[in-house]
Amino acid sequence: MQQIPRNCTYLDDFPTFIEIVTHDDNLLGNLTRSFSFLAFIATTILFLKQAISFKTSIKSATHRRLQLIQCSFPPIACFVALLNQLMPRTFMHLDFLITFYLCFCMFNFTKLIIFYQHGQTAMAHTFSSKSPVPNIDLAAAPFFCCCKMCFERIGCFGGFSKKNIKLLWLGTFQAVILAPFFIFVKGVLMTDGTFACGDSWKTSPIKWLYLSHIFSMLTGIYCVAVLGKNTKFEENMKKHKLFAKTIIFQLFIVCIKLQPFLIKQFTRGDNQPENGENEADDSGRIIGDLFKVKNVFVVVFSGLLNSLEFLILGIFCQFVYRVESEESKGDVLDSLAGTEC
Q1: Which CATH number is 128's domain given?
Q2: Each residue's pLDDT tens digit in the chain (341 positions)?
Q3: What global pTM score does this model have?
Q4: 192 by DSSP, 3-state: which?
Q5: Cβ partners under 8 Å of residue 218, min gap 6
């Protein structure tokens, strides 16, 4: 029986967990994994400290939940970064996990902005009561950041009606479903190896799935950017530090999604073997040699950088998401906004 060729076998280049634990005596590798473990412990402690603080300072259950979701991302990202270094063969599963949670945080960040405006109905009323009624400024990154004059002339989207707010809400919600789905199918095809990593964009389903996942996420990011850009200078939004929270969330996205892509592009010209053509012999693989393989290098080095970055971002979240003690108005806020976020 003729053997069907596999188009993508680079998973064989990745060391297993047992190989890393039992055979890797490389000092640098041990130091990086130790640092990632300490970063995970530190961000977890910071998150628990933040959760205890929110319990006493935030009366609104909805407000507390939405803020905790954002603050929980650094420890989750550090945990995934640690697993990427301990079990690099599972990077596709971990990519699916972190993509889903990132999109989930993005969707809840949209709900947090709407909550600050006391719900979709109150938000629409606030903007419609202005004179003149402002149109929604659609000139926002990443799609139309340089088209402000065109959108001002067209005004095609109208003002902040409840319908338009719902469209922006749905624009972020689709990323929670579609972006992880495309990553999941991409991972299935890459693991199977039959449909994977072709040279042509037209014949490689992996690349089309990756592009679809990127477009879904960019659409969600754009909807968050439009919503944040049009509300961050409102008087009642300044006390919530919305601009700083938006910057931190954008850094979440850059570190998780853009950074590994850039590392891979910068190492493309190196003389690193692509498909396991390394000098380590098969009977006793040396993990340090395997790290010379580009795909392994991207996964492991990205994990190390993410540990450092999200440790810093976790510290920033302590200050940006700090809430002064609220008055006993949590039930009122929940009734106004909780069902419409």
Answers
A1: 1.20.1070
A2: 444 444 455 566 677 777 777 766 666 777 888 899 999 999 999 999 999 999 888 888 999 999 999 999 999 999 999 988 888 888 888 889 999 999 999 999 999 988 988 888 888 787 777 766 667 777 776 666 655 555 554 445 566 778 888 888 899 999 999 999 999 988 888 777 666 555 455 667 888 888 899 899 989 988 888 888 777 666 667 778 888 888 898 889 888 888 777 776 666 544 444 444 444 444 334 344 444 455 666 667 778 888 898 999 999 999 888 875 554 444 445 544 555 66
A3: 0.80
A4: helix
A5: 142, 143
Contacts of 2 (CB under 8 A, 6+ apart): none
Query: Could you tell me the residue range of the domain that residue 266 belongs to?
Result: 26-273+285-338
Number of domains comprising the chain: 1
Query: Could you tell me which residues come within 8 angstroms of residue 189 by beta carbon, excluding any fewer than 6 positions away?
Result: 195, 196, 205, 206, 209
Token reading at 305:
């950088």
Query: Is position 9 within any domain?
Result: no
Q: Is residue 70 part of a domain?
A: yes
Q: Outline where the chain has alpha helix (H).
A: 17-23, 27-57, 61-71, 73-86, 91-116, 120-128, 148-154, 162-192, 205-231, 235-238, 242-253, 259-266, 287-290, 294-320, 330-333
